[in-house]
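Q: Could you fold this chain for me?
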Amino acid sequence: MSLSYAGAYLFKGLDLDLLAGQCSALLGPSGVGKSSLLRLIAGLEQFETGGKIDIGANASAALANPSAPIAYMAQQDLLLPWLDALGNVMLGARLRGERPDHARARDLLARVGLADRENALPATLSGGMRQRVALARTLMEDRPVVLMDEPFSALDAITRLRLQELAADLLRGRTILLVTHDPMEALRIGERIFIMAGRPALLSEVPPPAGTTPRDPADAGFLSHHAELLRRLRAADAQI
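A: Sure. Below is the predicted structure, expressed as structure tokens.
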């Protein structure tokens, strides 16, 4: 696939195969095109210079299509200000004209630590709380393909670790593409790890640590992989 802006290629002839049922983490310098790639897969951006997205037998990834197999979590929480936390979590069902599952929505809010804030409007929530509502809304969709763009970036360190574990548990078996700037996050929950670098950007794959996700960041093998991933990211940053 190829994508250009103002006559300059972000990426050209880029190929990315995501294995079904696995979490693939994508890292790289700011501005290299990670979020643009995610938006292309989600159908939120159009190819200017040619490309194709296939999801199983369905080549249409447009989120505007209610039957599309994708849930997408953007960098911004995108909560509707006039709906409370519970209403935002159930937004997808409401837009599709379905009867929302209140019990499941409340359970997800409890799992992200917001059981006592289900009636709170977004304006009364902190940035981290808003992002937790957005995560619960994404989990509520229960889709086979999940695209996540920096989903934990506004959270404090401990909450971030806890929600990484929750997402790894609740999304296990889904096909996930996670864009993150945090190498530790990629190593904790990524079953495949890619670095996007250069202009036009290319992809390289980095072997993940051993063990099932979410991995223990205190493990000696994990720390060794973390050091190597940081080295590769420094080299990638020099290519921008």
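A (continued): Strands lie at 3-5, 8-11, 23-27, 70-73, 145-149, 175-179, 192-198, 201-206.
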